[in-house]
Design brief:
Oligomer: single chain
Order of helices and strands: EHEHEEEEEEH
Number of helices: 3
Helix content: 10-25%
Structural class: alpha+beta
Shape: globular
Mean pLDDT: 87
Largest sheet: 8 strands, antiparallel
Radius of gyration: 17 Å
Number of strands: 8
Distance between the termini: 21 Å
Strand order of the largest sheet: 1-2-8-7-6-5-4-3
């Protein structure tokens, strides 16, 4: 049985993933990790079809649709690879702004990549990749979401502390993505796979 629980593996190992997840990670989630950086990969199963989940993930110009810590986002110019967004962060986090660049947007393979290029936070050289993949959960269309990242370890912090902090943020984002997507799926009344 598939649940909505997370599987997280940082750069110290790859245990915990199934064969399917490992294949997707090897194919799409390659990061060049240096000694002063940490990296991790998180997996989330969502009970909503891939088109609904992807419609939220791909919106570089509207991350607040599912990211609970984003209060506002402004994108300069047309939405394309290289576009930059200015994100305002809600209070409660050790930041107020983040400047982020769209690195990859593949609507066929469902791959989204972004890099943080500025802001008043400690996530230096942060880069992430999100992929979404169709799967079947409880006989209905579902989505496997994989998010991986690499980031510099700030002075005064350990790799474990840095990974733990970033993973906690991503888990909140993925939980919110699941909640919003599953709500949309209920409204969409997606039929079981065997009836399609």
């Amino acid at each position: 049985m598939v649940t909505n629980d997370y599987i997280t593996v940082n750069d110290s190992g790859s245990g915990g993933f199934g064969k399917t997840e490992e294949d997707y990670i090897k194919r799409h989630h390659k990061h060049d990790v240096h000694d002063h950086q940490c990296s991790s990969t998180l997996v989330k199963h969502i009970k909503a079809p891939v088109h609904l989940v992807w419609s939220l993930v791909r919106r570089f110009d509207q991350p607040q649709k599912y990211k609970p810590f984003v209060s506002r986002c402004i994108v300069q110019g047309d939405l394309q690879i290289g576009s930059v967004r200015e994100v305002n962060v809600k209070s409660g986090l050790p930041a107020t702004t983040s400047t982020e660049r769209l690195e990859l947007l593949d609507d066929e393979e469902h791959i989204f990549g972004m890099r943080i290029v500025g802001g008043d936070h400690r996530l230096k050289n942060y880069s992430s990749i999100v992929t979404v993949h169709p799967e079947v959960i409880d006989g209905r269309p579902g989505t496997l979401v994989i998010e991986s990242f690499v980031v510099d370890v700030p002075d005064g912090n350990t790799k474990d502390e840095t990974c733990y902090f970033v993973e906690a943020l991503i888990k909140c984002n993925l939980k919110s993505l699941a909640d919003v997507s599953e709500h949309l799926a209920v409204q969409d009344r997606t039929e079981p796979i065997d009836r399609i």
